[in-house]
Amino acid sequence: MSSAEQARWFSEHVQPHEPALRAYLSKRFPSLPDHDDLVQETYARLLRVEDPGRLAHPKAFLFTTARNAAIDLFRRRSAHPHEALAEADRLIEWPLLETPPTVVETMERRQRREALTAALQSLPERCREVMLLRYLDGLAGKEIAARLGISLGTVKGHLLKGVRDCARYFEACGLVDAAVRPPSESA
Questions:
Q1: Where does residue 42 rank: exposed (0-12), middle (13-18), buried (19+ CB within 10 A)?
Q2: Residue ranges of domains in the chain
């Protein structure tokens, strides 16, 4: 198929479905940040088909290709599991324009980082994963729920448990006083 024929086929059989495709992506994958990129990736995949004129159902192929592109995007995002908690260093960084820390400050920071890492390691796996996605990656609850395939209520429950368990861990290590905790949690 020549490029002119391919362009004609694309404008006749694919472009008319773009509004429906965007609506589908918005409804089916609301946590994806940019549906425009996903539509472009779908089009690029369609244009790589050797003879698109032979497709019996171009609309169905378009939507299936878009769904597969979205799933691939989710897989790429989750391909970097948070097994290594060394990334927690990003949580505790110094601004570049400040004076370098003293030896004491460096030691205190290292102890806090080690305590944070140990507190996170003590959490159940799914709870730890939710905490890292929220506080390390900065994802919103809905995004976490979509990425992990769990409900928003479950995400909130994991966050509540994670924060509470980390606070208890820090208290047990003597890093915070029980008096600092809210009255509802002091009991």
A1: buried
A2: 3-78, 85-186
CA distances from 19 to 37, 74, 158 (A): 14, 22, 37
Q: How far apart are CA 103 and CA 90, in angstroms?
A: 20
How does pLDDT run across 57-111, given as a tens digit for each residue? 888 888 888 888 888 877 776 655 554 455 555 555 555 556 677 888 888 888 8
Q: How many angstroms separate the CA atoms of 106 and 73, rounded? A: 39
Fold classified for 85-186: Arc Repressor Mutant, subunit A (1.10.10)
Which letter does DSSP use for residue 139 in this model? -
Distance of CA 9 to the CA centre of its chain: 36
Task: Kindly report the pTM of this predicted structure.
Answer: 0.43
